[in-house]
Amino acid sequence: MRKTDFLSVFLLVVALTGYQSALPAKASEPTLEQTAELYYRAWLNYDRASAARLNKKLRPESEGRDYIDMTMFNDPIAWQLKRMARLSVRTDPSGRELKRLMARLIVESSRRVRCTAVGSEPADGRFNATVKLDCLVPDAVAELTQVKRSEEADMINPTPRLLRSVIDAYARAPLTRRIATEMDLTAGPAKERWMPSQYRTGVDLVTGALIGQIKESGLGR
How many domains does the chain have? Predict the structure, then answer.
């Protein structure tokens, strides 16, 4: 079996990651900005409470179904592994360990991200809007560069030891890299609540800022 390019796998898995006054004003309903922040905390920080609140508010718009699958919060690493299930595994004995470490890297680096909504504006009609968010992600380039100097492997065909070092590098890195992103929202069928758009969440820009540092440091060759 051909060896898996684990950097490509990492890129693939992470990527597969109206205006307010137009709707009736209800104090109990999240604002545009609050809805966006709940979504980001659920998907990037794996925050169960944020997902539960978003689900509760959006059930009337989704025929009583959960908007976010709550099983992902029972064990985020296992949930990521399921997403990776169809991807090939290296034939050597370390293959499964590598996949679990890759899933751990995705979860633990993402959990450190902090995003804040900084404003919103109407987009394409009174029932569509865009929220602007300011996110801080770990700036791990210096740490990752040091890892590259001390390891012979790279993220194309990593060793378990390398992946653990990369995980530690993101954990130590200062939360100083700033990323500006945007999320589209649309009014639900009842036109009473804001729902995340399926077409542009902006989360990919944030995860991309994390992934890109691997190549920036030279670990991705």
Answer: 1
1 is a domain residue: no
- Whether 204 is covered by a domain: the verdict is yes
Cβ atoms 14, 104 nearer than 8 A: no
Domain limits for position 91: 6-216
pLDDT reported for residue 103: 93
CA distances from 77 to 9, 50, 158, 168 (A): 15, 18, 19, 16
Q: Are 81 and 104 in contact (CB under 8 A)?
A: no
Which residues on neighbouring strands pair with residue 24, listed in sequence order? Answer: none
- Could you report the per-residue pLDDT of 135-152, keeping only the tens digit for each? 999 999 999 999 999 887
Whole-model pTM above 0.90? no
Instruction: Compute the average pLDDT of residues 45-72.
Output: 90
In the chain, the amino acid numbered 183 is M
Which pLDDT band, with edges at 50, 70 and 90, does 174 fall under? very high
Residue 132 inside a domain? The answer is yes
